[in-house]
Amino acid sequence: MGRSSSTKDAQALFHSLRSAYAATPVNLKIIDLYVGFAVFTALIQVVYMAIVGSFPFNSFLSGVLSCVGTAVLAVCLRIQVNKENKEFKDLPPERAFADFVLCNLVLHLVIMNFLG
Amino acid sequence: MARSLAGFLALFPFVLICGAASLFQPISDSHRSAALELFTPTHGSFKSLEETYEALRTFEVLGIEKKPDVTATACRSISETLGSLTSTPKDLFYALKANSIVKCKINEKTSEGIFTRLNAAVNGASSLLDFYYSIGGLVLIKGQTSKADVYLTDAEGVFRSVKAFSQSDGRWRYSSNNPESSAFAAGIALETLAGIVSLASSEMDQSLIITLKNDVSKLFDSIEKYDVGALYFDDKLVDGREHQGPLSTTSSVVRGLTALAAVTAGSVNLPGDKILGLAKFFLGIGVPGDAEDFFNQIDSLACLESNRVSIPLILSLPSTELSLTKKDSLKVRVNTVLGSNAPPLTVKLVGAFSSGSKDASLVESQELKFDAETGVHILSNLPKSIDVGSYTFVFEIVLHESEHVKVYVTGSQTKVPIFVTGLIKIESAEITVLDGDLGSIETQKKLDLAGHNAVSLSANHLQKLRISFQLTTPRGRAFRPHQALLKLRHESKIEHIFLVGNSGKQFEIVLNFLGLVEKFFYLSGRYDIELTVGDAVMENSLLRAIGHIELDLPEPPEKAPRPPPQPVDPYSRYGPKAEITHIFRAPEKHPPKELSLAFLGLTILPLLGFLVGLLRLGVNLKNFPSKAIPATFAILFHVGIGAVLLLYVLFWLKLDLFQTLKLLGFLGVFLVLVGHRILSHLAATSAKVKSA
């Protein structure tokens, strides 16, 4: 009885989340997709390392951190681009995008150096 | 080992006696053959007239008949020099000297010219060497031409000018400005003065001659001597350039003195013992290896031999080693320095002393028999009191005729070191193993030390080993050799050496193994026994392997000394070493290739998922600017980003950080400019839309 209600509640929660998410603008969805892609890639790298061992460790770190870093930058971009966010009302989204690109390039330069 | 030591020990007695006794050999055939080797003309002539003279004089003195024939070339060069107007007095001097031996004819006109030139040179001379060459030349030309009236005008004046170069210590200077003085210059000066005296037209003032006598005796004060009785002159080294060695200096002085003694007829005398000392100096050189030294030696010896005062006689022995076994007899020769026969005389052996001992003579004074055929004085049988060993024999020369005593000088006594060898008898040799305290004999074996032995014994640490033998000299006396050693060598090559002591004729050594256990490092096993008996006078020194002994020693305690490490075989130490195999770092374990490739594929998967999601979201390029300029910028922007990513790939593959940063600088600037244009354009467009 409790279990069925909790599952029903979970299902209801899930559905409401889905419908609410569907309302988000497309560009934010693109960014969310990008974040998911980056995290997923990081996970696969971790699984690989778990299988074969951490040698060479610097390569593993650079791989994982590039994914994590780019995800973080994408999240920042999302915060800045989101129109509902009052804090960044005056910031043009193009500017935010330019920052995103620039930071990504710097991140990837460092990652490439560390990759070995 | 004994044999090599015998050679070294043969020199030992000579070193001991060197202070008192020595041996000089007169000129012999080895000198003659050396002369022919040293004085070889190149292409039929010698390099200079000086060398020609030296070579010819040497051949003349040594009486070498088969000498190289340089007469023709020498004559040519002599007449060239004598006829040339540019020849200096020095050239004329050496040309005339060479001519005195070669004896080419000089024509009247040339000799007149030479005489005038040399006379002028005498008058104009300012240094000792100028006088020497000009006066010497005049003396030579007088002897070579038929002119009888070659005289020096004002001989006394010239004499005084030369005398002015003398110093109070007997040495002479070369010129008035040069303060350097030497005995070599003294020799030259004396020769010059002798020449002046012989060229004087009338009798010279005797007082001048007497002052010369004083100079000569002062010069003799500076004579130096070697312990063996040789006397010589040497100059102190002042200036290395001008320094002549003792040989050149002494020969110069001898030439000058003998020339002076010849012309002053007894006024200037050379003491007889000094002459003998000088002769010994020249003979002591042996055979010189340098042509100039050879000439100096031979010329000086010829001067000493032909001087009117005293002719030195040299006592020499063809062999100083006598063997009692071969019954050698003592042979003595007496010759002049150049090897010619001596006048009738007797050699007496006045004493024989054992080296290093100051006891009375072992022999009585006796005369040696003279064998006229070989010219040798012989003592046929060595006296019974002479046993093996090293001795000093003392000889005396007694001339038969009394007038010879004034002419020849022999020295009072001549000491000669003699070495007498012989066979030493080794008898009653035996090797015994004795039981500990009781001393009872367990094994006893006789040894034949003259032949081969291979005894085989065994002993333990409670027993003793004894080896004994007797040594007797040919004359029946006890003998103590330089070496009497017993060596025990273990299988592991460790050796132990013991001295064999003696009392009288009996030699004995007892090895008490109980006391030697520690010395032997507690090593049991087979020891090879070797006996060495050796001495320089022993003709049958021996080094014999006697056999071996099996020693049984107790176990070493913990603190026992370990045997010393044996010397390493040099070939194994310095030879090639074992090959080194390098151990490289084991390569890291790589995961299997298939797994890595599988995961590479898996990594691409999220990217595909992203692209699929984008499509599902319905992305479009509607916002892409349509006008030309913004469109170009947009494209350039994307191209720029793509270029940077490509640069990163290249950075990973092959570029280094600095190259990348350099390129990134350029690309970055480009990207910023382009990006700024397009993004500001897009911003302006969306702002317009918003406001509209």
Structural features, described:
Chain B: It is found in: Endoplasmic reticulum membrane. The complex is a heterodimer of chains A (116) and B (692). By secondary structure, chain A is an all-alpha fold. Chain A has one domain. Helices cover 83% and strands 0% of the residues of chain A. Chain A has 4 helices and no strands. The relative contact order of chain A is 0.11. Chain B is α+β, with helices and mostly antiparallel strands. Chain B folds into 3 domains: 284 residues, Alpha/alpha barrel (Glycosyltransferase), CATH 1.50.10; 108 residues, Immunoglobulin-like; 140 residues, Immunoglobulin-like (Sandwich). Chain B has a 5-stranded mixed beta sheet with strand order 10-11-7-5-13. A 5-stranded mixed beta sheet of chain B has the order 6-14-12-8-9. Chain B starts with a helix and ends with a helix. The N terminus of chain B is likely disordered. The interface between A and B is medium-sized, with 31 and 36 residues.
Instruction: Please report the distance between the alpha carbons of the first and last residues of chain B.
Output: 126 Å
Strand segment tally of chain B: 24
Percent range for β-strand residues of chain B: 15-25%
Q: What global shape of chain B is seen? A: flat
What is the number of helical segments of chain B per DSSP (H or I, 4+ residues)? 19
SS field, number of helical segments of chain A: 4
The major beta sheet of chain B can be summarized as: 5 strands, mixed
Which parts of chain A are unreliable, with pLDDT below 50 for 5 consecutive residues or more?
A: none
